[in-house]
Amino acid sequence: QVQLVESGGGLVQPGGSLTLSCAAFGFPSIYYAIGWFRQPPGKEREAVICINNSDTTTDYTDSEEGRFTISRDNVKNTVHLQMSGLKSEDTAVYYCARGTAACPARALRASMPSIILDWGQGTQVTVSS
Predict the structure, then answer these.
(1) pLDDT for 52-79, tens place per residue?
(2) Which residues contact 2 (CB under 8 A, 6 or more apart)?
(3) I need a surface site. Which of 9, 41, 73, 103 has the fewest CB within 10 A?
(4) Cα separation of 113 and 129, whole Å?
């Protein structure tokens, strides 16, 4: 049975860092794109970042500072989302998702949900002092 389980969410102060993990069960994540999405309060879910099956990453955020990075731990069948310089507007429920092999190009961010096969249950990240 395919399952994605997120962990690592919590409360962090502005400017802080946090790493989320997405543990994959029932399939080898190395063969799939894994994406992170987030849904801020009162807003629609949006794509954050994606890693495809050749480990090419696509950052869908508007940040020029590269505050979000994604990486794989193939031994643990887990994908991590490293977040730094967190701001209050990063507060959201963060979801990981399994997709087909290719991550859409940055300009096609809105089409990201169309490649998704399975979703995790989400983990809350709150950025507040």
Answers:
(1) 999 999 999 876 678 999 999 999 999 9
(2) 25, 26, 27, 98, 117, 118
(3) 41
(4) 32
